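To whoever is on call:

I kicked off a structure prediction for a single chain this morning and the downstream step that reads the tokens threw a length-mismatch warning. I double-checked the sequence; it's 311 residues and nothing unusual in it as far as I can see. Pasting both halves so you can look.
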Amino acid sequence: MALTKYLRIPQYEVQKYPKEKLDKVQALFSQAFGGRVLSLEMLRWQMEKNPCLCERATSLWKDENLVAYNALTPHPAILNGKDVISAVSGTTMADEHFLGASLQLFTECARQNEDIGIIYGFPNNNSYGITVKFLQHHYVGDVAFWTAKAKKCDVSEQIRRFSEFTDDYEAISRELSKTHVFIKTRKAEFLNWRFFQKPGFDYTGFEYIDNRKRGYVVVDTYEENSLRQLQIVDIIADSKEIMYELLLYAKNLAKEWKCDILKVWLTSEQYKNILGKAGFVNGDHPFPMTCWTQNLDICNSYITMMDSDIF
């Protein structure tokens, strides 16, 4: 990706993660996202404490003005049978008063992170037009919610609450990588950071255990337009039977927690029948997914809400 077609666009000073100027990042975030606040705790958690890779941000400057900023969240993954570092692109923002900043930002971010095996994102309408039309990012499909009504269900007594991941789930994700082209590796250190150390979020985990750990579901709650929702932020199991039990448990939990509905992302076509059997319907609120330098068969990829940085 190069800017040879846009030589008349101003070029800004390129820096990486501006660790000593985080107030500038906070100010640009507030400007770009309608006054929302990005806390220092959240910013440092994302950029300085990730056990995979830290400080993968690109920033553009004009004198002392932060013109644009993009943050990657790297994570271990398996792509086409090989261990790689993947990253989701998020917290992308540009000051609208500086011409061409977004184009240069994405180009510099790609250049700075050539060691990352796959970079992907779920761009909004503004970013989608820029990245797909001008930078040839690959649109690989929409990721939509599977949605079900909260309902009292008979649930397995083998499922119990937990608050710390162990290494058992890495083996399950590696087994699933044999039948999926892309899956995030469920390493304990990364999962604990992602779910149980993230400031401002209240995730709850439940795992299925008989003679060994067979699968887990991580949930939180969200309210929008007076509709209380339970979100399945991540789910994984060593068989479709255990997956079904975890989905029923989540439906029952949604009812107990006085939620109206529950939602899950799960792009793998291998689970369509199980999701349908559990009462989920696909198609709500599709998010376009793009990959920066390659195509990806998302129907043969294991993508959950965990693979985004917004849930």
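Update from on-call: the warning came from a stale cache, not from the record. Cleared it. Sanity check on the structure: The mean pLDDT is 95.
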